[in-house]
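= Tokenised fold =
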Amino acid sequence: MRIGLDMMGGDYAPAEAVKGVKLFLDGVASGAHLVLIGDEQALSPLLAEAQLDQSRYTVVHSSQIIGMNEHPTKALKEKPHSSISIGFHLLQNKKIDAFISAGNTGAMMVGAIYSIKLIDGIQRPTISTILPREKGTGLLLDVGINADCKPENLVQFAILGSLYSQYVLGVDNPKVGLLNIGEEEGKGNLLAQATYPLLKETPQINFVGNVEGRDVFRDTADVIVCEGFTGNVVLKMAESFHELAVRRNIHDEYLDKFDFEQYGGTPVLGVGEPVIIGHGISGATAFSNMVALAQRMIESKLLDKIRASFTAVSES
């Protein structure tokens, strides 16, 4: 298992990326070999200081960096020697089994869609966020890359989220809900009204109906689907809980679960290889957890499960 990590992506890279690699390698025994993509001159002293087991990682040199504010498509085209471009080249050519970056999100999405490609039958990729609940964790998707959606998109997100919840998060027969302004069928805007009957008729999911905002952090549904505009609003609101607690010096076990670092990053669901996008302000814990997530995705054979599910959809 070879996991590629962009060491130059993120506000605190490469220092925090190296610390994250150390956290992962010093943690639970793992058969994963890390492919660290970045500027060798910048990485060498940091790696030496970290005193890592050199048999467990390889450095691939990159001479360029795609900045956070650069135009994604233009940057990928004009910077073929950037850490993100090299990462996708390695993934596309099966030199690595997963690719992780906390760098330019747009470049990661463009690379995932155009170099790795969508799985047959999937119309759009999606990204999700973990929802800390009273018991365990839930999943919300889409949270930003699909601000406008068709009902068919939300149905596919529901299937993708259900498979991810089952095989990566370990939820047996996850309950799927549609985020809405009321519990009753027929509630909501045109998108919600059109999506509900489609979800009800989708055999691959355990649809439990509409869920309201007050249900997001309850145990009502394990997977909640919505279009990316609403999802991103919920995501940013949830992130503010932990930030507010830290600013007010509030120590609470439940509020601590809203720290994004605990979950690392989010996979781009729907593309043909494991691609994980991290928060731009990722620190060591987030980088370590992103590598652990990539390992779980590979070990669970999630992509094979997704292909099989959408093959069954196209044949039915």
Summary: DSSP finds eleven helices and eleven strands in the chain. The first strand starts at residue 2 and ends at 6. The chain has a mean pLDDT of 93. The chain has two domains: 1-121+270-301, 123-260.
